[in-house]
UniProtKB/TrEMBL annotation, chain A:
<feature type="binding site">
    <location>
        <begin position="233"/>
        <end position="235"/>
    </location>
    <ligand>
        <name>Mo-molybdopterin</name>
    </ligand>
</feature>
<dbReference type="GO" id="GO:0030091">
    <property type="term" value="P:protein repair"/>
</dbReference>
<feature type="binding site">
    <location>
        <position position="171"/>
    </location>
    <ligand>
        <name>Mo-molybdopterin</name>
    </ligand>
</feature>
<dbReference type="InterPro" id="IPR022867">
    <property type="entry name" value="MsrP"/>
</dbReference>
<feature type="binding site">
    <location>
        <position position="136"/>
    </location>
    <ligand>
        <name>Mo-molybdopterin</name>
    </ligand>
</feature>
<feature type="binding site">
    <location>
        <position position="222"/>
    </location>
    <ligand>
        <name>Mo-molybdopterin</name>
    </ligand>
</feature>
<feature type="binding site">
    <location>
        <position position="78"/>
    </location>
    <ligand>
        <name>Mo-molybdopterin</name>
    </ligand>
</feature>
<dbReference type="GO" id="GO:0046872">
    <property type="term" value="F:metal ion binding"/>
</dbReference>
<dbReference type="Pfam" id="PF00174">
    <property type="entry name" value="Oxidored_molyb"/>
</dbReference>
UniProtKB/TrEMBL annotation, chain B:
<dbReference type="GO" id="GO:0010181">
    <property type="term" value="F:FMN binding"/>
</dbReference>
<keyword id="KW-0408">Iron</keyword>
<keyword id="KW-0285">Flavoprotein</keyword>
<keyword id="KW-0479">Metal-binding</keyword>
<protein>
    <recommendedName>
        <fullName>Protein-methionine-sulfoxide reductase heme-binding subunit MsrQ</fullName>
    </recommendedName>
</protein>
<comment type="subunit">
    <text>Heterodimer of a catalytic subunit (MsrP) and a heme-binding subunit (MsrQ).</text>
</comment>
<keyword id="KW-0249">Electron transport</keyword>
<keyword id="KW-0812">Transmembrane</keyword>
<keyword id="KW-1133">Transmembrane helix</keyword>
Amino acid sequence: MLIRRPADIAPSEITARELFEGRREFIRRAGLGLAAGAALWHGLPAPARAADALPRTVPGPFSIGEPLTKLESAISYNNFYEFGVTKSGPERNAHRMQVRPWTLRVEGLVCKPREFGIEELLKLAPMEERIYRLRCVEAWSMVIPWAGYPLAALLKAVEPLGSAKYVEFVTHYDPAIMNTRQVIEWPYHEGLRLDEALHPLTLLTFGMYGELLPNQNGAPVRIVVPWKYGFKSAKSIVTLRLLEEQPATAWIKQAPQEYGFYANVNPEVSHPRWNQATERRIGEQRRRPTLMFNGYAEQVAQLYQGMDLHKHY
Amino acid sequence: MNPPTPSPVQLAAIKTAVFLLCLLPAVLLARGWFANALGANPVEAVQHATGSWALNMLLISLAVTPLRRLTGLHWLIRLRRMLGLFAFAWACAHLLNWIWLDLWFDWRAIGADILDRPYVSVGFAAFVLMLPLAATSTQSAMRRLGGRRWQALHRSAYVVAILGVAHFWWLVKADVLEPLLYALALAALLGARMWQRELERRRQLAAPPPLPGTPPKGRVIRIVPK
Ligand code: HEM
């Protein structure tokens, strides 16, 4: 399979998404039609577009032209240890999580610390669809059409102070509905350098495949950082904190000799458990070579100029 | 009262039943594979299932001797070779899946993994140690080696099990619960073996010395030095 860099793909070539959107529109209409039919049947007024639905999306930049992972795979093969350490556990258990109401606190070194309700967040910036590669540190990968907008839009709204150098994400943890065995430290913490967080590829994400995120994929709001291993893309986040010091992250605390803060996808730096030179694209027979920065080198390599990526893995 | 011993016909029936039972997980796995029912990453599902069954069968085969001593059902020993060979067959499938469906005969990656990744090195060592056990599993090999040497060699099945558990322990990312359970089961088996050996030692110490000239009854395994 020929792997093309984003710059090689003319927008007109991306038929996969257009086809897919056509189909999605059809499904959405069919769904609304059914709902309307059901409402008429019961003599009720037809529902307006649900307040909870994903806002209309516009095609965003950086989308790749590779075939999408089957939706069924993307929602049944997940790492979300709070809902079980197997790949199938999250799909079985994540429905217990209540994603409405939901607030995201933004605090720390910002001019305007505050809480955002999920409804407000959904409308903060135009919702874009972006088809990104997702590469897990376990050497498998997917191609997923996300819906969201750059995290930078939210950060701008709170005005980071000059002293802010890092962004920390804290995810939801509720022992009543989640794993109580401390497999890793909960609540889960992740983080980015501020310039990484402000990078236009970094997506504050609310949906995928044209719908709101399923719970197991990190509903109602998560981060997607496509050039880093999947564990950096924290799910179901409740707090975003701007800091001067590099935050401690869950996986670094778990196994400091195995996980680094940057966790950039890098085929040349092996993990002690997994050879990172190749990956299994879910749904494909054979492994394919892993790309530097997961294929986003053109966009992000300059963030790491002068850094030894073997040391800062 | 001695527990009943099955007749040759009964034993053959028991063996056939155990064989079919042992085959069942393989049939289910194969059916899942061909029905596309192993989830989003079937190669990984096969890697995990074959590894788990290799270890399960190994521990089951190691449980035969303690169980036999405990229950007095001496004929259980007649099942042990089959159980051990099932463990070996699962390990072969495990290795084959990795070399073929996971890495597609990329010998450089295979070699690098065996050398660089401790969990693979340990699994590979376990597999290599299984080879002489499988090769000497026949009656004729047992005769050729002689009982004692054969027994000494086959005690390394415990080493294989220890390496297998270490392999599992090393490969989990965070949650060691499952390998911990295997480690406990293995410790219980080793403990039972040591305890039964100790009982036998005490029995031999307490027994009156045999009258000179009378041949010992049955098979005597000397633990207490003469
Ligand atoms: C021939 C050398 C071997 C290799 C290359 C090998 C490789 C692997 C690999 C790649 C995995 C999956 C790791 C992951 O998904 O992260 C695995 C899992 C496993 N292997 Fe092996 N292995 C070998 C030998 C063995 C042997 C001899 C045993 C048992 C006696 C064994 C028992 C297991 C177990 C129990 C698992 C975990 C299954 C689970 O996650 O449920 N392996 N092995």
